[in-house]
Amino acid sequence: MKSVIKFIWSFFIVGLAAYFCSIFSRYGVDTFYGALQKPALTPPNQVFPIVWPILYALMIISYYIILKTVPFAKIKRAAALFLGQLVLQVIWSWAFFYQAYFAYAGIVIILMIITVYLMIKEFAVYSKTAAYMQYPYLIWLLFAAYMNFGIIYLNGNALNL
């Protein structure tokens, strides 16, 4: 039963972050994102709803592996990093897509990349599998940073919405 609760918690916490990110992202896509000049290699909008569910599924499973493998008292740092990167993800979505504060979002995405990298290192202490499952997310964040900073270069630091 404890395993089921740990899985539900993993699903809930990632789902909550995904929910808020989707609200902010939808706002930006529906209002200003289409009119932005975007850097080369920016994928079409249809790619994002494919990539994010895969990344979220990997996050859920990876965090669940950590939770079920090691007593919580020993993984407080890993859990804090995991939850921290989810909070940063929501802040980034709010800054970029809801407020169009691209420079602020750029700072947040750098913090997110660092946090995810540290999280992967921490996860690896307890489960190599859980750590490896986070690499696609880290790679996507690096690509997202390229897009974020490309948008700043092409459009300026923020839009006046």
Keywords:
single chain, 161 residues, mainly alpha, Ferritin, 6 helices
Architecture overview:
It is a single chain. By secondary structure, the protein is an all-alpha fold. The protein has one domain (2-155): Ferritin (Up-down Bundle), CATH 1.20.1260.100. It is 78% helix and 0% strand. The protein contains six helices and no strands. The termini are far apart.
CATH names the topology as Ferritin
- Calculate the terminal CA-CA distance, rounded to whole Å: 49 Å
Fraction of residues in H or I helices: over 70%
Architecture per CATH nomenclature, i.e. the level-2 architecture: Up-down Bundle
Strand content: under 5%
**Total number of helical segments?**
6
Largest sheet: none
Secondary structure tally: strands: 0
- Could you name the CATH homologous superfamily? TspO/MBR protein
Task: Write a brief caption for the model.
With 161 residues, this protein is mainly alpha-helical. It has helices at residues 2-31, 48-69, 76-98, 102-126, 128-132, 135-155.
What is the strand and helix layout of this fold?
Layout: H1 2-31, H2 48-69, H3 76-98, H4 102-126, H5 128-132, H6 135-155
